[in-house]
Amino acid sequence: MLWLLSRDDRALLGVGGVGREVHELYARWYGVLVQGTFPSGDRLWQYPPGAGPVLLSPALLPGLTYFQAFVVLTLAADALITLALTRAGTRTGRSLRGAALWTAGLPLLLHIPLARYDVQVTALAVISLLTLSRSTRACGAFAALGALVKVWPALTLIGTPRGRTTRETWTSAAVTAGALLLALAALFRDPFDFLRQQSGRGVQIESLGGTVLSFARHAGWPGRVRYRYGAMEFTGPYVTGIAAVSLALTVAAFGALLLWRLRARRWTPATPYDAALSAVLLFTVTSRVISPQYLVWLLGLAAVCLTSRHTTQRPVAALITAAAAASALAYPVLYADVIACTWTGSLLMLVRNGLLVAAATLSFRRLWTAGLPAAPDLPENSALGRNPHTIPVIFPTRQ
Prior knowledge:
The protein is mostly helical and 399 residues long. Helices cover 60% and strands 3% of the residues. The chain has 17 helices and three strands. It has a three-stranded antiparallel β-sheet. A hairpin with a 2-residue loop joins strand 2 and strand 3 (231-235). Helix 5 (97-105) packs antiparallel against helix 13 (294-306) and helix 6 packs antiparallel against helix 7 (136-150). The chain starts with a helix and ends in a 13-residue tail after the last helix.
């Protein structure tokens, strides 16, 4: 991954320029943040205020350039995730499959993870889940920190066991988020400007709706692909409707997760992990934007699931791994085809997004089934106990 990043400008794989976001965009935001303000009015700034400290963190390594320091800190976050998964996997009743999945799966995304700050966010989510069994307050605090950086880590708390655990975890998350927001509001100006920019986003070409529009181009749809809000998006007729459908599906996914939580009766040690993966998968596939770095989140959560022998998500982890490999082909390898909506690009996005939809559907179905109450055991000497296919016949007794 480092070797590819060092040769990023040579376009060895596709369009190249993967590290440009750090070189140009993150470095520019750093120059604004050090002045005590968030990038106000910047259409590319679409992140919660917790992203500010992450983008300022390269200042901790003054002997390096901003890009070098950013990559070093990303590698440190990667090492932290690996260490956490390894320690969790060596406990009684656990497995090292999670650490193996993260170590082998992340390079499938080529050098993209080293040029985005999603590894840092994933580290907060992974630590949040793995600390649940030891400290509910720490679990909630890490989830809140992650949510203030990129929102989605808040979903890691959806599977906490009912009762005291949920109350303590969610209370800790709320207190941590409130305290950090107050601190950031006191130290920086315009901490909530990102909300105005986020609402204007359209349908990204790599999203599920974008795949539909990509094939529509082959059927004569007159829409075009343009660079907007930091991504390649479709513009033209029906785009607004597709975006509205995506939002409706996201609301429906949230409702399905709430229904699962209300109806679930069985919790295992892996249920919080499985629920977190399922929730993030559902929100990913229904989003108007599915950037390639989103696969970093899914690999991290799938790895957490595999640390437990009770998980129901092993086949889901396999689908996510395949989707990560397909995603790297879509960007950066064949991104020119994806932008041009060639048959190659359209079919590639169909495969990648099809794998994600299959993973989300299977994940939620297995989560739902695992939460149902177990069937009662029958006595061993009963007719049904001896042969489950036998229907006992009751004859009337004579008086």
